[in-house]
């Protein structure tokens, strides 16, 4: 049986869904998504989910709470490992009009994915890696894996409304995740934590 590990770039997937008007699919089960992408001769042996905790946002003060609820739900899933990067905010200004604002961006996810991909390849933890991302910064580790481990395959599952030609060309194959796969990979509306606390799908994601 061909062993598969999934590597999900949480922010790349989120923005792909957002820009496609697919908010109803935010409540996603990462392991179920990868499992729904497998071929009959493949077996899922692990799912790595990469993200960063966002801060509060005056324009949407509950945004970080929705993310926290989702992450707590994902943490209940067996076989899913979450790796956190950083979410940094810094002031920016316009020299022409002197307007200032706060710009926030996620950091370290591409590096974390690259490190884990290479580590898992060296440990012979997978035969096929499925990467859910369209971040071209992942081209170098994909190229290294294909050069150093020619028996292993790297497949790119691009989020909706996201594509990187360079990343697709570096991998063995590439496809875009369709709506049905997303719809079939949702968490239940209620997720019960080990301590009995019930997590609810945010009403904004229905």
Question: Count of DSSP E strands?
Answer: 10
CATH superfamily: 5'-nuclease
CATH hierarchy: architecture: 3-Layer(aba) Sandwich
Tally of alpha and pi helices: 7
> What is the first-to-last residue Cα distance?
37 Å
Largest sheet: 6 strands, parallel
Radius of gyration: 18 Å
Q: Name the assembly state.
A: single chain
Tally of structural domains: 1
Question: Major sheet: order of its strands?
Answer: 3-2-1-6-7-8
Average pLDDT works out at 92
Percent of residues in helices comes to: 25-40%
User: What name does the CATH topology carry?
Assistant: Rossmann fold
Coarse structural class: alpha/beta
Query: What gross morphology would you assign?
Result: globular
**Strand residues, percent:** 25-35%
Question: In words, what does this structure look like?
Answer:
With 206 residues, this protein is of the alpha/beta class. It has one domain: 3-Layer(aba) Sandwich (Rossmann fold). It is 31% helix and 29% strand. The chain has seven helices and ten strands. It has helices at residues 10-19, 30-35, 63-75, 109-122, 139-148, 165-170, 179-183, and strands at 2-9, 42-51, 80-84, 86-93, 100-107, 128-132, 153-158, 173-176, 190-192, 198-200. α4 packs parallel to α5 (139-148). The protein is globular.
